[in-house]
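A protein record pairs a chain with a discrete description of its three-dimensional fold. The following entry can be read in just this way:
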Amino acid sequence: MTKHDATFLRHFSMIIVGLTLFTVFLILVAGQIHAGFLANQSKDGEPSERQLAQMAKVDERIRPIGGVYAGETGRAAMLAAAEAAREAAASQVAYGGTLDGTVIYDTLCGACHTAGVGGAPKMEMAAWTARIGQGMEVLVDRAIEGYTGDGGIMPARGGNPALTDEQIEVTVQYMVDSMQ
């Protein structure tokens, strides 16, 4: 056996011993983790109150994504969930209920109307002359209901379902007034 072979065998043996010690360490750590889980269970092997509470939180968090709606029963459940979401959104009032069109425009509407995102008309009189000619009622109605036309897309309530009709009306009025 040459000197190189002896060196190789010594290094190889050290690696094998190191890996064996590391494996024993991992087994001990896994045993401690498992013992911790067992300590959280009740005596009859059932999950503890803490684990049940954690599982309930996880179920609640994934319910909107993990829900399965099949057949007519599922369709009814899906429509009921959508209606409940609409009612929850309607019960909230955006921006603390402010009727200051400047605040609402600056925080919501300006994101699209300043840069013309999604075909939104920029805050320039040339882009709004024909629209203003249709009347405030049409402008407010399109802001409330949403509108797709003229090469642009206006989401209903500017994309914020918590806006009230009155808030939308004062914001549209602010936008029209700021161009004149």
